[in-house]
Amino acid sequence: MNIDEKYIKRCLEIASFGLGFTAPNPMVGAVIVYNNKIIGEGFHHKYGGHHAEVNAINSVKNKNLLKDSTLYISLEPCSHFGKTPPCSDLIIKHKIPNIIIGSKDINSKVNGKGIQNLKNSGCNVTVGVLEKECKELNKFFFTFHKKKRPYIILKWAQTADGFIDIIRGEKSPQEPTWITDNFAQIINHKWRAEAQSIIVGANTAINDNPKLNVRKWKGNNPLRIIIDRDLSLPKTLRLFDGTTPTLVFTEKQHDSKINIEYCKINFNNNIINQILEILYTKNIQSLIVEGGAKTINSFIKENLWNEARVFIADKYFKKGIKAPVINQIPVSKDNINSCNLYKYLNI
Asked: Which of 53, 76, 290, 307 is the catalytic position?
């Protein structure tokens, strides 16, 4: 690892502290080095707050050192006015001569303009240090701007004999059929805190009566999304409690109210594509597809997914609802207490 990679790696480390709080902005870290010593660093804490470059520059006690320093940053500095002024202008103002950038920002509002702004002002600019790692950190952001849709994570738990749920009857309780243990559930809530939205179909909503919020981890609740074609779901379900922003896709016209928005789509056309198009317009960059089997299989059928996270527990139902199937080899397998977590990637 050379010196530039060393400091970009540090940028990535501190950038990750913003996970779950910066969207729809990317996670960014910045480090300022003078004579091989870090004199300042900062990261983007939350959407609407100061960017990483601003926090890094503000952390430098002796600003006179900036004109002889090198700024390392995991993503190209912005060049436009948004929630905050352009970071490239701030860098130029402080006459920082050397800029090392992990990855170019493909957002059309930036997309090389920040780099060019720095070069036009006489800065020495290097781009592409640990580029793959920088893009991986912000995979939600890059997928959103490249594919014009959210990064899609399929998630489910299944038994060792391949079932995702039991057969429900009229007298079955409205609660999840727990396959995993509490430790896996904590991990699931952590994932929810990291994503911007989460979706379930009508069957899961009625059978499990889920909250789809973050309770076993600290973080923001994702936007809850329900597919309810004919608005037949009881309004007594927890998803309609109004405590968390909720989006309902339906074929019927229905007035929205506080924290519950009804969105009419055509169920005779491709439902998944319509949902993703609307989420794109709402600047939603990540989506967890949590259930049920019909909804998850719809995304698999359309090949509209980026990642699948599958818990397999040492339980046997012998009969029930068949779990979805991904016909490829998992990229990883981890033991999570009483079950195994398999991860699949759809590049």
From this structure: 53
